[in-house]
Amino acid sequence: MSVAVTPALNRQSFAVYALFLLNGAAFASWASRLPDIRSALGLSLAVVPRQVGYAVCG
């Protein structure tokens, strides 16, 4: 049993790969900035996880 790979399927697969790549890059740049943001806001390590949770959850 073989699966025919059409150009449309190939484009859709590429779009999914591109979205995962962009999401990963966005998360990596955000996560790497957390220590700078924490120090700029003067937050302690005990407060940061709670504040990030509030920001993510609304």
From TrEMBL:
Origin species: Branchiibius hedensis
Top-level taxon in the UniProt lineage: Bacteria
Protein name listed in UniProt: MFS transporter
Keyword Membrane: yes
Keyword terms: Membrane, Transmembrane, Transmembrane helix
Transmembrane segment boundaries: 14-31
Keyword Membrane part of the UniProt annotation: yes
